[in-house]
Amino acid sequence: MSLDRLLKYINLLIAAVAVAALAAVYWFAWRPLPKTGGELRAPVSAPVTVMRDSLGMPHIRAAGIEDALFAQGFVTAQDRLWQMDALRRRAAGELSEVAGEAALESDREARRLRMARIAREQAVRLTPEDRQALSAYARGVNYYIETSQGRLPLEFSLMRYDPRPWSVADSVLAALEMFRTLTSSWKTEIQKQALLGGGDRAKIEFLYPVRSGLELIPGSNAWVISGARTATGKPLLANDMHLPLTIPPVWHSVHLEAPGLNVTGVALPGLPGVVAGHNQRIAWGITNLEFDVQDLYIEKLNPQNGRYLYDGREEQARVERERLPVKGRAPEELSNIVTRHGPVVAIEDGKALALRWTAAEPGTFHLALIGIDRAANWPEFRAALSNFPIGLNFVYADVDGNIGHQVSGLLPVRKNCAGDVPADGSTAACEWGGFIPFDQLPSSLNPSSGMIVTANQNPFPPTYAYRVGGGFDAGYRSRQIAHLLSARTGWRAGDMPPVQKDVYSAFMHFLSRQAVAAYDARGRGNQGLSEPVQILRAWNGQMDKSLAAPAVAALLYQHLRRRIVERAAPGKALVYRSAMAPAAVERLLRERPKGWFDNYDELLLKALGDAMEEGRRLQGHKLAKWSYGRLNRLYLIHPVGGRLPGIGKYFNAGPVETSGSSTTVKAAGNAFGPSMRLVADPGDWERSLLTLPTGESGQVLSSHYKDQWDAYQAGQGLPLQYRSVTAKDALTLSPR
């Protein structure tokens, strides 16, 4: 065969492969893109219009609320069906059925927590209003599934399965999964108990303060300022909820308009309504309360017969059988033991630990979102929140100029026990004494300061009538936000994003000055530390990705904390996890109590030496070339497409070096940070801003898959259209 003929065949083969690849891309990735224009016949009572703006955000206009929620279910499924299916599977413990053994441990934990059973139990106790809203949403999701057979999103083809119909219980599961994300403290109880085993109790309690002393009176970031501080004379509200970052993002933006409802903001895929945003009268934002709503009980359990001791008598535990399908192998059979306190979720040192969790309390699930979305004033807003089951901080603003703060949730009353370590389940001493009445939860309206800041800090006053416990933030973020907002007046909506992306760390700045002072006092003869001390001495506390100083400070903190925990609980430094750790470390260095260390300056210098040794391993010996961003990279990996050889990078976002830390307003880490950024302006809703981390769509070939990524990285707010919507596409859902 001649060379020319061989080259011809090779070129033909390459062309055939290219054509086949393009055909596959078209069939599996392009063809499933949703229909966003024209008309569809649908089970609605009157025509519904879905306008998509330049960012792909759906603006839904309907003749009734039920039709609006149907359309929300439909458009959310258009954009995020696979994410929704993965969310309910993760919550129910059903990922292994489609993902195989890699998801087994996740499924086992969900089954131990009884998530699917709780969802079904809560679903049968819904109010008629909640059931109507959830049913309408489910019908919309199922309409998309029914009309998209054979062209479902790419992930279903890659994983070779079809989604089952959406149900009301699936929406409850979606809410429960977020509830679990926000309230899972039971593992912290085990960690603290492990530290106490052989550790110094007084020192360990020092490392777990409930209050840091840095809190602001009424707690992710949310704040509101009154018209006295703004250029318009109307309030401004800002919110950026901190969660594990994913692609597609946690939130889906949507605008719902129907008689009695005109709300816009972010929604949780799987749930109807808007979680944070504004309507025509009010705006609101959310942060996690961090109040402890889970307790472990050590059961005196006989594993042979399921009998356990309670209050001087034996009781019979319930055994629930679970069949866990696993792709590629035989199903796994599980048995859950459930006591009066809840399921046995762990066995530690031969002891059975049962979990009580407010999410499992019968009949406590209330959607509440639709009531919040329709509220027109502060009393109506609070009335809607009175049934909200999750412990959250809500900040509020309205067009009349009012600002407010309200804590929500089902919060246990603990009379005799703190709930920070597993309690003796055989007595009634540590039982909950009901729940804190809503009208006694922290609340404020129009404080004299003209400002309310919540950033996961403890919002309960020191004299609060009930025992307070939880994993509250140390307070550095809230103090910095308050400092920035207090520095001037005349604020406008466009001035809020720079506050949201502020990266000054008062804690790291304090720690660096402590290290410099220790060197000046005792370490000048240590030439190996002179260069990092010089860099820290000139540093201004900005956790900037391009600088070496924050890298030195971050490593210093890690090694200092390890040495401190080792002193409290030898050999268990890696066990310790607490959001209050920075506050505990700062207090220790300020007070320098006896009984911890003989010489705190030497402690700091040794930790700095350890930090430099690790830093040289990570970034080389030339300190001037170090950068904090190399320690703090953000990389969002799509759970399915992101791992495909060759093309996975197109599904992912990053990696990018990022500024910020857990103690800066911009709380940023490797896969954690602001899951959205919202600014609401009651003076003119058209000046409001909303940015998602990547984009509205979960479909990789959509133009809205990553079209917000650059703006998110830059901390730029994108316009949130409301009264005047510029439609890029318009779809009409017409009655059948």
TL;DR?
This protein is of the alpha+beta class and 736 residues long. It is 34% helix and 21% strand.
Q: How would you characterize this protein structure?
A:
About 35% of the residues lie in helices and about 20% in strands. With about 725 residues, it is α+β, with helices and mostly antiparallel strands. The longest helix has 28 residues, at about 5-30.
Give the topology:
Elements lengths: L2 H28 L7 E5 L5 E5 L5 E4 L3 H28 L3 H4 L4 H9 L2 H9 L4 H20 L6 H6 L8 H16 L2 H11 L4 H6 L14 E5 L10 E5 L1 E3 L7 E7 L2 E7 L8 E3 L3 E7 L5 E6 L1 E2 L4 E4 L2 E4 L1 E9 L2 E11 L2 E7 L2 E7 L11 H6 L3 H8 L6 E7 L4 E6 L3 E3 L8 E2 L7 E4 L7 E3 L5 E4 L21 H11 L9 H5 L5 H18 L6 H8 L11 H20 L12 H11 L8 H20 L13 E4 L16 E5 L14 E3 L2 E4 L8 E3 L17 H6 L14 E7 L1
Parallel strand pairs: 1-31, 3-7, 11-22
Antiparallel strand pairs: 2-3, 2-31, 4-5, 4-25, 5-29, 6-28, 7-8, 8-9, 9-10, 10-19, 11-18, 12-13, 13-14, 15-16, 16-17, 17-18, 19-20, 20-24, 21-23, 26-27, 29-30
Write down the Rg: 27 Å
Helix proportion range: 25-40%
**Shape field:** globular
User: How far apart are the termini?
Assistant: 64 Å
Average pLDDT works out at 93
| Poorly predicted sequence stretches spanning 5 or more consecutive residues | 212-219
Main beta-sheet strand count, sense and barrel state:
11 strands, mixed
Helix count, per DSSP? 20
Main sheet strand line-up:
1-31-2-3-7-8-9-10-19-20-24
Structural class: alpha+beta
Could you tell me the number of beta strands?
Answer: 31
Beta-strand residue percentage: 15-25%
